Amino acid sequence: MSYIAPVKDQLFVMRELAGIDAVATLPGHEDAGLETAAAVLEECARFTQDVVAPLNGAGDRDPSRLEDGRVRTTPGFAEAFRQFAAGGWQGLPHPVEFGGQGLPKLIHAACTEMLHAANLSFALCPLLTDGAIEALLVAGSDEQRQRLIPRLIDGSWTGTMNLTEPQAGSDLSLVRTRAEPQPDGTYRLFGTKILITYGEHDYTEDIAHLVLARISGAPEGVKGISLFLCPRRLPDGRRNDVKCVSLEHKLGIKASPTAVLQYGDEGGAVAELVGQENRGLEAMFVMMNAARFGVGVQGIALADRAYQQAAAYARDRVQSRPVDGSVAGAAPIVHHPDVRRMLLTMRAQTESCRALALVAAAAFDIAQDHPDEAVRAQQQAVYEFLVPLVKGLSTEMALEVASLGVQVHGGMGFIEETGAAQHLRDAKILTIYEGTTAIQANDLVGRKTARDGGRVALALAGQVAQTVEALAARDSVDARAVARRLDAARQALVDTVQFICARSKDDPTATYAGSVPYLMLAGTTLAGWQMARALAAAEDRLAAGEDPAFMRAKIATARFHADHILTRVPGWRDSIVDGAAGLAAMPLEAF
Ligand SMILES: Cc1cc2nc3c(=O)[nH]c(=O)nc-3n(C[C@H](O)[C@H](O)[C@H](O)COP(=O)(O)OP(=O)(O)OC[C@H]3O[C@@H](n4cnc5c(N)ncnc54)[C@H](O)[C@@H]3O)c2cc1C
User: Fold this and answer.
1) Atom of ligand 1 nearest to the CA of 212
2) Does position 528 have pLDDT exceeding 70, yes or no?
């Protein structure tokens, strides 16, 4: 089997770290405890392993194509999508009143990981549809929600997110697509959108394009941008005036059709306003935040698949005598300490980021549904702090992990037939779309740290300190070693937050020079915190005689994470706090 879903680890994280029991006390989620999660995850594992994963390589070799203005996706993908929709998977986290299953984000995030690991190109379409549903839930009128969301959930439509234009990428204030109001209350859209994922495909009868555009006469900048819904087909069945004029040829995720969409060549694409005029970016941010979290999960998914493949290869490939003399002749390469270092680096990073993402998902669920308003607000702040970390850290680590995956394969990793190279090529997009790592880091520094004087960041550091204290008091060599490393990382986090809060107003260049290292530092510390908590839980379960092989592996992985990954954190602090001047010293014209 090319992919085995990590159900056991996901359930361990849900139970021990993310607090699924607490999530299952929230109104509306009473049936969503560990038992439900286990049943849903097992079913999802079967679908993703058996139906979706086998198509991953085919998508790379035989990508989507544009033929006579229509997109033909990789053979097998449309049928897999039909099964995905029929299985109710699109509706998993969405409200029951629109045909969804209303399950918590915690369970949905675990299923999402499986789908992305099985086939990133395939899973992008449901990811964007989720975002469209979220945007309609927040900004759509009652009538729009009733009309559109059930179709998005039952798989008769999919959703897209149309932000990017040739001159407007990271900076959406430069969006130029024009919306002309019509006497009947609709609008006509004119403009070009580029790099639109699943902007055209052959899965469904229709597509709901959510489009950022400017109503004629609207103010310049972000305050003049509105959100529109533009269907591929008009109510009478004719094609709307939105055409896929080309598909991009890409480094990776080749089966996902990335379209250039031309609006309004024949009189204007018919569209309707979603939400209020000039408030489009706010609604789009809802969609983007959901998608950013989802892209972070893509990173974890891809890293896990790359790890699984590398571990299998390392057990099989025979080369060289082990240094410890444990085998007389050449042995499987997993015997070599450096190969084990690579495999554990891959595994520890994947598991730590998975734990952080699921903890963030639980914070989201509590923020949505907890009866106490103060608890909701506090968990919302935590979730918002964690989103750029989940997105930025998990995707950067996926790139490192996928690269290590190629390295474990040696020369065969560089040859396409093994599939290791596909993971590396696919991983690169994750640090770019839904806001590059730099854009996540700007958000983390500005809105999530400096704006509240580091309140949320320091509160989390306070919780890390409690874990350090608890681990240091345990009668365990591993726990005490992890406590020491975690405490050093915690101190580096506190130092950096204080540096950012003290300098961001007077010296923004110095602060933002360290924005990405700060994202890596904060993310790694909080992911390492989850591994430290996992170690304590695994020691307790082991003492109770529960699943010794799994618990021992978790303890070893947590210890490795502390010694080999958390140790990177103080170095980031030094480069942020001491290194900013070096960046400013180089004049612009010297580049
Ligand atoms: C395969 C693929 C699928 C995509 N799917 C979609 C989609 O479905 N919908 C959609 O709307 N878009 C989509 N995109 C577009 C994607 O979101 C953008 O490419 C991305 O936001 C970056 O914008 P850009 O390419 O214009 O790069 P630029 O904004 O030109 O950035 C170039 C570099 O400058 C840096 N930079 C820019 N501004 C800053 C800043 N303020 N601070 C620090 N660094 C900065 C960036 O980090 C980057 O390194 C997709 C792109 C690809 C490749």
Assistant:
1) 11
2) yes
